[in-house]
Amino acid sequence: LVSNKWKVNPTVIDLGDGVIIGGDELAIMSGPCSIEGEEQIADTIDFLKSQGVKIMRGGVYKPRSSPYSFRGLGIDGLKLWYKMAKEAGLKIITEVMQVSQIEEMYDYVDIYQVGARNTQNFNLLDELGKVDKAVMIKRGISGTIDELLYSAEYVFSGGNEKLLLCERGIRTYEKASRNTFDINAIPILKEKTHLPVIADPSHGIGIRKHVGEVAMASVIAGADGVIFESHSCPEKAYSDGQQTLDFKESEKLVKAMRETHKLR
Ligand code: PEP
Ligand code: MN
């Protein structure tokens, strides 16, 4: 069902209030790795608004390698974030880690993110197939492109067609970067599926000074959107500061991506 053979026209997802993914415009989503508190949310909102970025990312349920790392503010953090984002006219994308969170998060999210560690959590995918809200599935840590497409098939066949796919890098033998961003996945996914394809250069390379280069390559490769991590002070971020852009760097990147997208 997610194949281009089944549906020729590209899927366009309308989040309301004129926010559209998969159309002619490049969808830009940005914000911190983790939602940390009121001041950080406010700083990020002000910045995104100044750039005309309409979708804010951030985690309130964080899948951390170590259980002792910051694991997110949970549902109360999401409620606070939602209230502030709504007032500012921004949409929210945030990760859902388990089935029991779907319902409690429902009123406070615009896009449910399925993280790389949950790409093949088939129970979660089944349940998200029944929800009337957009879902972005990230490629699994060691997942193939076909496995990502089968994960999408779970959600789509359940009845939820508001689906986005995200290339976020895969694990290889290469240790020079956090993950190996698979630029090939972008044109291949665009050829195979009608779903919008989003690039995550932040987790894709994991090195702040190179995030912009991978982001630009993704735009040229045909991505429908880019999601990247930003923070007023990356050095103080609770998670993933090493791959997070400050607002000055983010502004430069947003401008460059939009200009390049126009030439595509
Ligand atoms: C994230 O987007 O913050 C995240 C945890 O990503 P991934 O699931 O790709 O590791
Ligand atoms: Mn992160």
TrEMBL record:
Enzymatic class: transferase
Record-annotated DAHP synthetase I/KDSA domain positions: 12-264
Alphabetical UniProt keywords: Transferase
Domain of life according to the entry: Bacteria
Entry annotated with the keyword Iron: no
One example GO MF annotation: 3-deoxy-7-phosphoheptulonate synthase activity
EC number(s) from the headed UniProt entry: 2.5.1.54
Name this protein carries in UniProt: 3-deoxy-7-phosphoheptulonate synthase
Parent sequence residues shown: 70 to 333 of 337
